[in-house]
Known about the structure:
The protein is α+β, with helices and mostly antiparallel strands. It folds into two domains: 89 residues, lambda repressor-like DNA-binding domains (434 Repressor (Amino-terminal Domain)); 171 residues, 2-Layer Sandwich (Beta-Lactamase). It contains 13 helices and five strands. Strand 3 and strand 4 form a beta hairpin. The longest helix has 19 residues. The protein is elongated, with a radius of gyration of 21 Å.
Amino acid sequence: MQQAQNELGAFLRASRARTEPTDVGLPPGGGSRRVKGLRREEVAVLAGMSSDYYARLEQGRERNPSPQVMEAVGRAMRLTPDARTHLFRLAGLHPALTSAADRDLVHPSLLHLLDAFPAAAAYVLSPAFDVLAKNDVAAALLAPLDGTPNMVRVLFRHPRAREVFAEWPTVARATVHALRLHAGRFPDDPDITGLVAELSEASEEFRELWQDNEVENLTRAFKVFVLPEIGRIELTYQTFDVHDAPGQQLLVGVPEPGSASAAAIESLRAPAERGAATA
């Protein structure tokens, strides 16, 4: 419980630092401010509570905040829906999902669905961002990164990650924010906790992003791949939750119709289709 409260305090402080006074209708502080973002007292006023009570929340001394209090704090700092949900979980007010024993098993119907996207890159991720299944296009896109099945490890430890992901900083930031959201949803998942511990030690860039305490679902994203002999491939990704396997996500990346990226995807499909025809 103490760890959860420490996590709650860290998240509140980080969120407060990111909230500019003008974002919540307060006058800008200019050079008179000693802290970045909002002061504790300002959050307390905006949330309709005493400064002492809010200070106890951040310090972990208030261990049983009500849903109404957390809602008021989230509203005061204009938290996004994802961030507000994360806030509730850290306060122990939203039931954290437990990691199922079969969380890494992909349902056969989902495996069939992957092949229903022949002109798109489609793959399934575990709560810890292991690639559990992928279609032929996704396999071709990720081929230069073979040997590292976890996408977070790929981004921060694979020597070719920055070569393949043309907009690496954007992809890395979004992935870490989504991983932190999963860590709140699955606090008992050893794959997530082990991954965070490993990368916090091995990668300064990961550690800095993790300490930002930002959370956001992957939902929709724009990714640019650069492959040898193929070149630049631009895809718009949409992410879907797999409801019968909480924490699993299906990602589908599609190119703009008629674009050079669409032609590149066709060239990636061709070898796989020739192989299937001769099998």
